[in-house]
Design a protein that fits this description.
The protein is mainly alpha-helical and 124 residues long. It has two domains: 76 residues, Orthogonal Bundle (Helix Hairpins); 47 residues, no CATH class. It is 84% helix and 0% strand. Helix 1 crosses helix 4 and helix 3 packs antiparallel against helix 4.
Length: 124
C-alpha cells in the first residue's frame, strides 16, 4: 500500500472511530482548513521550509479529511472526485495534454478561462 492509500485509511479511521472525528461536519472542518491555509501562508512568508513542509501536510490532511466527510455525509466517492478534478485539469490545459501550443502564461490562462466559461455555459 502506498503512502496515499495508507493516509486515506488513517483519516477514514479518524472520521469513523475518533470521537472528535465523528463530530466533525463539512461546515466545521472547512473552518479547520481555513486556519491551516493561514498557517501555510505565514510559513511561506517567513520562508521557513521546515514549517512550510508541515503546513503543506496539514492542508493536505484537512483537504483529505473533507473528502472523507463528504463521502460519509453525502455519499460522495473520493476516487470519483479525484478523477473528476484530474479530467477537468486535462481538459482545460490542451496545451499540456493535447496538440495545442502556447508561448506565455497569459495565453495559457486565457485558454483555461475560455474552456471554463464554455463548461459553465454547457452545465446551465
Amino acid at each position: 500500500m502506498n503512502e496515499f492509500e495508507k493516509t486515506k485509511t488513517t483519516i477514514r479511521k479518524i472520521v469513523n472511530e475518533c470521537p472528535w472525528g465523528k463530530e466533525q461536519t463539512l461546515e466545521k472542518h472547512i473552518e479547520e482548513l481555513k486556519l491551516e491555509l493561514e498557517e501555510l501562508k505565514e510559513a511561506f512568508e517567513k520562508n521557513d521550509l521546515e514549517e512550510l513542509r508541515g503546513e503543506l501536510g496539514d492542508v493536505f490532511y484537512d483537504s483529505l479529511f473533507l473528502l472523507m466527510l463528504a463521502e460519509k455525509e453525502n455519499g460522495m466517492n473520493i476516487e470519483e472526485i479525484i478523477k473528476q478534478v484530474r479530467e477537468k485539469v486535462e481538459r482545460r490545459k490542451p496545451y499540456v495534454f493535447g496538440d495545442m501550443k502556447v508561448d506565455t502564461k497569459e495565453e495559457a490562462l486565457r485558454i483555461w478561462n475560455e474552456i471554463k466559461q464554455k463548461e459553465k455555459e454547457q452545465n446551465k
